[in-house]
# Entry
Amino acid sequence: MVEKAYKFRFYPTPEQENLLHRTLGCVRLVYNKALAARTQAWYEQKQRVSYKQTSAMLTNWKKQEDLDFLDRVSSVPLQQGLRHLQTAFTNFFSGRAKYPNFKKKRNGGSAEFTKSAFKWKDGQVYLAKCLEPLSIRWSRQLPLGCVPTTITVKLDPSGRWSISLRVNDTRNLLLKPVTKQIGIDLGITSLVTTSNGEKIANPKNLNKLHKKLRLTQKSLSRKTKGSNNYQKARLKVARIHAKIKDSRLDYTHKLTTQLIRENQTVVVEDLAVKNMVKNHKLAKAISDANWSELVRQLEYKADWYGRELIKIDRYFPSSKRCSNCGHIVEKLPLNIREWDCPECAAHHDRDINASVNILAAGLAVSVCGATVRPEESKSRKAGALKQKAPSSDVRESHPVS
# Structure
């Protein structure tokens, strides 16, 4: 059984849109008030506030005269908002995410409805406190016999409404095994370079609309903030961003599905994209390439369809290692796209050579559990020893890859 989410556009009636706007506003308010309460409790009393305590706060807020409107919407999305806040704090304390931020109205918003807050009848969705079903544009049908377990309604900054239906897919999605194995090197000029010598071009979705986006943002900067003209200009900017995002996501889905269907084993590098975008010269290009999402999709699609995805260490010198003899050159700047091995005189295309090495390293990891992390240099070892040395004047620091 596989848990899937199917996303669709829908077009609410004026009454439904009014109710949904109020619901999103209440979810945002409850989330922000709970976050403020938890932050204040820690800074003033050094106490942690649990989900159970914020749930009790919500009950008291509904009794206040100035917050009585919280009772006019479904209580389920409000409780789910508190659960999402608890998850955000859990991720923060585990070191997987930053401290939670307050939700903003201009970012749209979302509301999650569990089974007690919606009805699925004759292929139609009825939300709590709505008499009419949502007018959903069914671009595809749900798997036969699948019933939604959770529904998430979202309003994006461009003003589009979408609904996500989470279902448990009981179908057997495993594909017929194949013998093909492939290593992938992610890049900017060529989005994907495979170990069989194929290069897939980067569509560069941002560049296609960059001029239009720049002019629209320039127009927005000239408007008085908060005015009607400002809101119209903001909406135009948001729609361009939405178009870029949709085209980027669509291309990534098609590419990852093709790679998973055609190959039994796919090997990629475990890149630290968050650290790489700190380089202001390459940040825009790296973000537009969508590397993180591409690897994420490969990961869950491999699990769905019975394929194998192998991630090798990000420090593995895939570009500097000769795929013919194994010699590692000392330096290989990014502007050098082709090079000759000083040991065996083999001529290499930088990206193809890296993808071949990535495949070899991935197979070594999967077969015998070998490590592909290179030996630390003397300077790096000295830095590590310096960090471990007890000293009141030296603070602990974390290396950035």
Remarks:
- Residues 377-382, 384-401 have pLDDT under 50 and may be disordered.
- Residues 174 and 201 are 29 Å apart (CA to CA).
